[in-house]
Description:
By secondary structure, the chain is mainly α. It has helices spanning 2-17, 25-40, 47-74, 79-93, 96-111, 115-123, 135-182, 194-218, 221-231, 240-251, 279-305, and strands at 254-256, 259-261, 264-266, 270-272.
Amino acid sequence: MSVLMSSVLALLLDWRLGESKHWHPLVGFGNLAYRLEAMLNSHNASMYNKLAGIIAWTLAVLPLTALAVALELNLQNNAWLSLLVSALILYVAIGWQSLMDHAQRIYRPLKQGNLPAARQALSYIVSRDTNQLNESQIASAATESVLENGADAVFGAIFWFLIAGIPGVVLYRLCNTLDAMWGYKNPRFIAFGWCAARMDDVLNLIPARLTALSYTLGGKSTVAWRSWRRQAGNWKSPNAGPVMAAGAGALHISLGGDAPYHGTMQARPQLGEGPLADAESISQACQLVHKSLLMWLLSIGLLAWLGVWQ
């Protein structure tokens, strides 16, 4: 039952404390990643730059993961200390309340018709241009972000904690952070960020589909399953596709579609089916994440009771 207790304690800490307002370990890791990139990235698409990206990923991730392994080994003989330390590290790795807070900062002004404030809040969590988005486009972008980041910031971290304990969640969060920093398909990162993007894809392969399944069970299941089956493969990301297609279907709304990025319109396929997103879609996406999280905790408890996890 310790894995369940650690997970619940981590979520309670996140619920009560939220993300650290001062120094956060991932901020320090981000600074390390910036320094490694500045030293090694030659900003071209050569094989040498791809190798440089692999070296940078290795230097950033493997030493800290090795420390996590050593920490877990040293905690094996102290069950209560292990539970507390595991909960603290999982708390640092998840971003449940941070995601909900960002969603609310978009939802409230959008609900009130204050589009400039909603656009400004949205700009903090998406990479697309937000200056000219209308109400439906703002709602769609925010809903997509809640659904996709629910998989990355919540369920992926919990999955790898269940599978490999402290080293698993540390490895996952570091890889996910590097993908967010280096995993862009532009001249600066197309080669250097290849390793970071591919490793994140591998680590999210199973948790993304479990998240999609959770969304399917937590909403309009028939529509969600149909959207997942028919539309997920059309999306540019192999893991975001199932998550967002199932989430859109579960909410019975249409997401995706063309969106402005860096001054140009990028063609994107439709996800889900039904009316366009509105302000309430953001709130409903948050509720879907909450339902899915409850399903995960109940499933972990059942598996712990059956002896799958201790």
